[in-house]
Amino acid sequence: MRRIGKDRLTAIAMITPSVIAIGLFVYGFIGWTGWVSLSNWDGLRPDLSLVGLRNFERLFQVPRFQADLRNTLTFTVLFLAACLIIGFLLAVLLDQRVRGEGLFRSIFLFPMAVSFIVTGVVWRWLMTPSTGLNLLFEGAGLGFLKSGWFTDPAVGIKAVVIAATWQMSGFVMAMYLAGLRGIPEELREAARVDGATEFQVYRHIVLPLLQPITLSAVIILGHISLKIFDLTASMTKAGPAFSSDVPAYFMFETTFQGDHYAQGASIAIILLLMVSVLVVPYLLYSIRTEAQV
After folding, report:
1. Which stretches of the chain score pLDDT less than 50?
2. d(Cα 293, Cα 287) in Å, to the nearest integer?
């Protein structure tokens, strides 16, 4: 008993610094941001007098923030759909044991080794109307594909989706490939023997078994899309008519360039709530699943 008590005290002593650090630098700062969002701090001089939800009411009346929410919704839907579809198709291709699989897998995963900042800089050059892709299309006789890309308000955030999909679809491919390799080949063979076509095998056997991986991919990609900042900051900034602006970049400009700390904090809290709506149900589902197992 004395040995068990000593081990327990040792374990508590080992994790206490981490608990204190997380409590202070994560939850403490979240609480501080929430307090500032309810205050009247507008300028370099702190003013923590409470004004309630007035900052949030004003924020939702700002046309730029309304555009940011629309851009976020568009980006999230297109980004998730593109990454899931492309990632799954690439995984299916590699699952056929093609020659040079290791090389192709490395090529598809390579963008994951690049930061969003670097991706934004590269794709900013590729999508500059006078260079990059437009020159390639013109030289290939595909001039009808030329576009203003992120300089065109009609395209705007969709150009950012292309760059983000290029970077993250390989990650989804790796997740799906691991899932495909974990499905017993006997299940597919049994379905083929029963007369199922290859499409039916994937629809009725493979895809249902890959649902946990799809859910995990949606959660990971979803929280990335909701708080995206570095890609848009390096690639388009807010774009013409805020066509590629996002809440995180609006928060950065509001807080650190405009010195409107209370409004910037309110944007941060809304971002936190948006991510929580996506992540918290997944965590609760994971806890219940583990408890049942």
Report:
1. none
2. 10
